[in-house]
Amino acid sequence: MAALHPDLNFIALDFYNKGCIKTCKRVDKSGLANVRVLRAEARSFIDSCIPASALRKVIINCPDPWPKLRHRKRRLVNSGFATYLSRFMGTEADFYFATDFVDYGLDVAEFMDVQPEYINQLAPDTFRHALAGYPVSKYMRRFLDLGQPIYYVHYRKS
Ligand SMILES: C[S@@+](CC[C@H](N)C(=O)[O-])C[C@H]1O[C@@H](n2cnc3c(N)ncnc32)[C@H](O)[C@@H]1O
User: Tens of pLDDT along 63-73?
Assistant: First the structure.
């Protein structure tokens, strides 16, 4: 994504070292100068480091799905998070969410459609299984190779 948008600066977040190190290696290998990698929890990082209306894109790829019903409240992306996030997004900033987990995909597609802060960019669909020009991560590729779809959601801040 950073290679496709050299005009934007990217902050790549993950709270596990393993993901961060892999991303650092790939950034170094591709010589990208517009990416910084941070080991941080997304919400606390935004809270402490991102000014209001500063983000032009938010891209959330396959966060932990917390499949057990009793753990669902641990999911990063929910209606409250979408409202919270909108304060940090500039006008017409993009929100992308991708997941391999059907229930998470359908849930996000459903609540985003009634979030007053956002406009659906895939209408009349609320999600799709492919987005033109959207890079597929190694993690996503594993599911696609098994014939399991990825759920993509794309909204824009109103
Ligand atoms: C299944 S992996 C996906 C990795 C990568 N995003 C991709 O698509 O290839 C899920 C990752 O989300 C990270 N994650 C989940 N919730 C997070 C949060 N609140 N803040 C930062 N990272 C988070 C986890 O640390 C984990 O490495």
Answer: 999 999 999 99
